[in-house]
Design a protein that fits this description.
This protein has 400 residues and is α/β, with parallel strands linked by helices. The chain has a domain of 269 residues: Glycerol-3-phosphate (1)-acyltransferase. The protein is 43% helix and 12% strand. It is built from twelve helices and eleven strands. It has a seven-stranded mixed β-sheet with strand order 3-10-9-4-7-5-6. The protein has a two-stranded antiparallel sheet with strand order 1-2. A two-stranded parallel ribbon has the order 8-11. Helix 4 runs antiparallel to helix 5 and helix 4 packs across helix 7. It starts with 5 loop residues before the first helix and ends in a 12-residue tail after the last helix. Keywords: Acyltransferase, Endoplasmic reticulum, Lipid biosynthesis, Lipid metabolism, Membrane, Phospholipid biosynthesis, Phospholipid metabolism, Transferase, Transmembrane, Transmembrane helix. One of its GO terms (cellular component) is endoplasmic reticulum membrane. InterPro entries: LPCAT1-like (IPR045252), Plipid/glycerol_acylTrfase (IPR002123). Pathway: Glycerolipid metabolism; triacylglycerol biosynthesis; Lipid metabolism; Phospholipid metabolism; CDP-diacylglycerol biosynthesis; CDP-diacylglycerol from sn-glycerol 3-phosphate: step 1/3.
Amino acid sequence: VSVKLHNWHTHSQPTSACVVVVSGIIERAGGSLEEQMEQLRRAHSLAGSEFALSDAFFFYKKGLESIVDDQVTQRFSSEELASWNLLTRTNQNFHYISLRLTIIWGLGVVIRYGVLFPLRITLAVIGLTWLVIGTTLVGILPESRAKSWLSEVVHLTCYRICARGLSATIQYHNKENRPQKGGICVSNHTTPIDVVILANDGCYAMVGQVHGGLMGVIQRSMVRSCPHVWFERSEMKDRHAVTSRLRAHVAAKTKLPILIFPEGTCINNTSVMMFKKGSFEIGGTIHPVAIKYDPRFGDAFWNSSKHNMVSYLLRMMTSWAIVVNVWYLPAMTLQDGEDAVQFANRVKSAIAHQGGLLDLDWDGGLKRGKVKDSFKEEQQKMYSSIIVGHKISSTSRERE
């Protein structure tokens, strides 16, 4: 197995047809399975339809690469930094380096927990209280343009107060491409506060499941003044019912753009993973948005497997700040001859390119599940087609 440190091969020039992709400590060859196998066979002067022991070693090598440097599971842990930012936020936590640095870190703890944290909690409480009271009062008014305008004012004010509670510094780019009413805004997903970041610059119709407790109170107050789309648990399992309600919302060109995160889970601010095709079957105009957080000032990624919401918000409110760039991309529509999966991949690639993120085809659902048998069978069929010498068209990966 060829395992090289990143700085060993940064300047190396691949001479083969396959492109070398550097991710972590593994030097990976890009391209499809057929292209990699063809290159391997040419190197050993083998015919395309002959079996060789080197084929077994090829898959053995791929398996070891995944164990050493898995492309998927590392997207669900905090992004490591080149240098420490005086926060206990790296995967290795605090390590003693020097007395001076320890004193500086201690002063930082006092400032973050003793000064910034109480102020941020106060602002967050004010923002959420205003959201509940303001939206409830606006909901009493009859339907009119004045009600819509007041609703937007209340929502924007609340989200901006909450953003101050996180010390968020947001830079918006290409504002002329901001999502319009009757459209669908799709974005990469790093944290639940992505909603707060985007809603600071415009109002959106939220999509989600109905909750109880405090979250339920907030949801019920919000929907009184603005047509958000909340689903019961039973409805969320009915794909056709969800699609039908979203299509009806988009068809009403006067309603706010729907905000959707097609990945379905939070990724650690380094990559964009597979977009579920459901968001792209609704129809209408897609407004892509790329979000990129600066990890030097605070770790915005929510690892839901490690931290609950309360502990996560505590980490966020005791960070130095949340620094983020938001890019509005030009609107995109389904092209002739393009299906929902291809459309989703095209939008995902545009977001990844703009945000400087790695574009991955893997399903974010692997955070909690295993690789589907259909994907394993697809790889087996592709290899068997090489052995028997026939070109069998590979089936499209199953999307949800």
